[in-house]
Amino acid sequence: MALILPESAEVAAWKAEQAEQVESKVREVEHWEAELKRIDPSLSLVVAKPGSEDVQLMPARWHVRKEVPAGPDEYWPLVGPNDEYREPGSWMLEEFKAADLYDPRVHRDKKEAKRKLREARVRAKELEREQRADEMLLGYTAAKRLRSEEGLSKRTDLKASKKTLEHRKKLAEGS
What we know:
single chain
């Protein structure tokens, strides 16, 4: 026989279960916030309210907040590549380390990326120059092939009979 509990007891059990889940999320967020504070003590994790209209905030998304003493705080949204919702995790620490401007390795990587971009632009310009020269050469050789301005519309390669050739010769002499 099943035990019948009052509705309030069921609601209390449901709320307790939810509280455990929320608390575990809070513990997880506290863990990642502690990791952020190791990078910079002024960093913290916050969630923007669903109706937030601030330019730096994406509604209902996690953000890393940097407390700036002399001005407004800075916020970086924790979102995926297409601005989709993303939970805080180790990926955010890797992104901050990749953006660390005090790390000489990051400077090397950025310089390397700029160098590769410059080289790609130079190659693209050379390719464009070569293609332009090829197009000009094709146009020039096509123009050289034409015997007159009518060359493309009037066929001149047909063999005419001997009688027709003599008639054309008389006409040319008479003009």
